[in-house]
Amino acid sequence: MALPAKALPLKNILSAILLPVTLLLNACEQQQAPPPAQAVAQPTAAEQALLGPATLAAWQLGETFLDTSLDSSTRLCAAVQQFLQQADQPGLENARRAWQQAHNDYHRFDVFLALAGSSPGLFGDIAALNSPLDSWPITPGYLDYFAVYTHSGIVNDIAVPVTAEAIRRQHGFSDDADVSLGFHAMAYLLWGEQGRRPPSDFAVDAEIPAALGDAGLSKVDLPANRRRSLLALMCNLLGDDLQNLRRQWSSGDAVMQQQFLQLLPHSRLQLLQQAAGYFLVAELAEKQLEPLLQPGTEPSESLHSFYAGASATAMAAGLDGLQQLLDTETGLGSWILQEQSERQQLQQQLSQARELLQRPADILHTRTDAGESDPAVTELHALLLSAAALLAPDTD
């Protein structure tokens, strides 16, 4: 399907997303109920009764996504343990596939993570909960050897014990890119620089050179053994942090859930509408795609999954989560967009975007001979902005 002749200017889209958020947060600060949604007509009392279960189902969909992510992380840790028992290429490839699956499953939750940016007054804590799970970009040399720095990183720094407390303390130690936890720290250990880490990097080193022994080092201090321990620890901590996010999202005393349910159904819908627009514009179009469209951009800083080489599949998973929120599971799309033609247009745009991202060659990692991004990135960018314009129209 051809793109709309003219998408709304980005500043109008952002205004549509951020203005309702500002109004909502001002109301919260005054301990008043959120203002009526502006982008969707105020429903009747009968419609509110129907909308309540739909918005509750939307919140529960987030819980479902997190449950799936937890299951995938458990399988990832099992694959890592199997690989560490026999550090060979098939085991490494299996661990990498398990990482890809777990990472994609987590990103179906992206539209809910966007609440931290679209409604920080209510859901800013989500950003802190996400930090130990999916922080990027990373400084590779903070973790392990990189380029000519063959003895850099936590792996080679015996002053940093490979314990949960120490590795958590290293996360974001002096910069946001000092990442020692989560998917992307694990990815660098599994793939290494340029995706070529050999399985021998994880082989048990059973003998310590005499000079190192004389210096007081033991076998656990050797880089290969520390790398093994660090990878296993990271996986366990990933599961712990996912469980914490799941608990904060939907346990009986979860503050975020209580805040959501205390809102009127129409205000919940507005909240999710804003998050969807913010996800498409700020998180995808601006943060991930626009840097790729600029000449001279450093790929390691703009590609979400640079070292694993799987940025497109993660983005596609996020769009799949959004489509489930709007259509398959909750039907919220019919509340946001009253016209069937608009709903169909939105569905087609999101489906087209996913098709681009699911091409055999990752369009986000592809560069032309001239060093430019794949032309499909420009098409994807336009699709996401057009979809955001439908979800969050200008209400000035």
Structure report:
- The chain is mainly alpha-helical and 396 residues long.
- It has a single domain (10-391), classed as A middle domain of Talin 1.
- It is 62% helix and 0% strand.
- It contains 18 helices and no strands.
- It has helices at 10-29, 45-85, 89-107, 110-113, 115-118, 120-123, 125-134, 164-170, 183-191, 210-214, 223-250, 255-262, 265-289, 299-302, 311-328, 332-336, 340-357, 375-391.
- Helix 2 packs antiparallel against helix 11.
- The longest helix has 41 residues, at 45-85.
- The protein is globular, with a radius of gyration of 23 Å.
- The two termini are 30 Å apart.
According to CATH, the fold-level topology is A middle domain of Talin 1
- Please tell me how large the radius of gyration is: 23 Å
CATH class: Mainly Alpha
What's the total number of strands? 0
Category by helix and strand content: mainly alpha
Q: Domain count, please report it.
A: 1
Order of helices and strands: HHHHHHHHHHHHHHHHHH
Characterize the overall form: globular
Strand residues, percent: under 5%
> Averaged pLDDT, please?
87
Helix tally equals 18
Fraction of helical residues: 55-70%
Could you describe the largest sheet, including whether it forms a barrel?
Answer: none
